[in-house]
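[step 3/7] inverse_fold.run input=structure_tokens len=102
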């Protein structure tokens, strides 16, 4: 299995590198890696659109959390596959956050 794990990690590294290479300079500045959905949601709570507009922000955060919860099983699978190198899982959460920002 170690060979399989190394091969899988190489596939995720290549996908991560390709994804990051496609980002514009502006998006590269905004791109952040997260270890978990919870870490990402904590940071999103600090966004002005969330923190300064309580009612609208709470509704927006609730929708993001619901989407995150629905996607969680898929991210869990990715996390299991790349558990030897959590950088790749961080890229997935970072990409999700970037989509929310854009």
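[step 3/7] decode complete -> sequence:
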């Amino acid at each position: 299995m170690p060979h399989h794990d190394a091969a899988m990690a190489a596939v995720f590294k290549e996908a991560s590198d390709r994804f990051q290479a496609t980002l514009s300079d502006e998006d590269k500045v905004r791109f952040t890696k997260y270890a978990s959905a919870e870490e990402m949601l904590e940071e999103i709570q600090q966004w002005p659109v969330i923190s300064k507009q309580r009612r609208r922000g709470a509704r927006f955060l609730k929708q993001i959390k619901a989407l995150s919860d629905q996607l969680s099983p898929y991210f869990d699978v990715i996390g299991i596959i790349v558990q030897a190198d959590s950088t790749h899982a961080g890229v997935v959460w970072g990409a999700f956050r970037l989509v929310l920002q854009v």
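[step 4/7] annotate
The CA atoms of residues 39 and 93 lie 9 Å apart.
The chain has six helices and no strands.
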